[in-house]
Design brief:
Length: 250
């Protein structure tokens, strides 16, 4: 709930993973922390050398992580008090992180590099209070709550909440249609890791203020941010607050 942006991507066996980006403030703890994917490296290149916290990665991916423009700090490279195991859930879902121990310094202006723009609600759009995005073995549902001005999140049929019980509720949801293809990596069970192509262009749906807006996304290079525009080419601003970007297969 403290993240500025939450990305939802597809991983092995059609399951989902979340990547939270903290540009404005750091929570006291975050987790469960899971393993990194090749998709993460391309996606994060639009930020200015961010700290990447992850539990580990398969051996063939480690050289790519080492060569990426990120500060990679898994448990073996982070200060000894940064990661800890929680006692209320089984491994591997019990690894948590104290972000401040990584000496990361949030910069509120960092999101400007991503191409995100924030501003008043644009004209047009279609009233929409409910939207579901499905992966092969996962689903995300967003329900508009007018009196809160936010979208309540349901993942795999369960309301998404923090460990303290607070509901996850972004102000803007972006359903970004992308190409999802097999990569050269796979997990221990032999399932191929999908790679989500976030460089290029395509269509999107932007949900804000209880309305859906048709959009076009464009990211010309890995170092570039992602611009979202209306069908006529006008920049499409997001509502101020947390943004969720769900990568749906085009």
């Amino acid at each position: 709930d403290a993240a500025d942006v939450v990305y939802a991507e597809q991983v092995e066996a059609g399951l989902s993973r979340l990547m939270a980006v903290y540009a404005s403030r750091l929570p006291s703890a975050v987790g469960p922390v899971r393993s990194a994917r090749e998709t993460d490296l391309e996606l994060l290149r639009q930020f200015d050398r961010p700290v990447l916290a992850f539990s580990g990665a398969q051996s063939k991916l480690l050289p790519l992580i080492a060569g990426a423009p990120v500060r990679a700090l898994p448990p073996g490279k982070a200060p000894g008090n940064a990661y800890y195991r929680g006692a209320d859930r089984p491994a591997p879902h019990n690894l948590f992180l104290r972000p401040r121990a990584l000496k990361a310094h949030p910069q509120p202006g960092a999101l400007a590099a991503t191409g995100f723009r924030f501003g008043p609600r644009p004209r047009g759009g279609t009233p929409q209070a409910h939207r579901t995005v499905r992966f092969p073995a996962a689903s995300f549902t967003f329900d508009w709550v007018e009196y809160e001005g936010r979208w309540r999140v349901t993942m795999d049929g369960r309301r998404a909440r923090t460990s303290a019980g607070k509901e996850l509720a972004p102000t803007t949801v972006v359903v970004q249609y992308v190409k999802v293809r097999p990569s050269r990596f796979h997990d221990r069970a032999g399932s191929v890791s999908p790679f989500t192509e976030t460089v290029g262009q395509g269509s999107a749906t932007v949900l804000r203020d209880g309305r859906a807006y048709r959009a076009h996304w464009n990211r010309p290079a890995a170092r570039s941010g992602t611009d979202f525009t209306t069908p006529t080419g006008t920049p499409l601003p997001f509502a101020k607050g947390q943004v969720w970007v769900v990568f749906a297969k085009a």
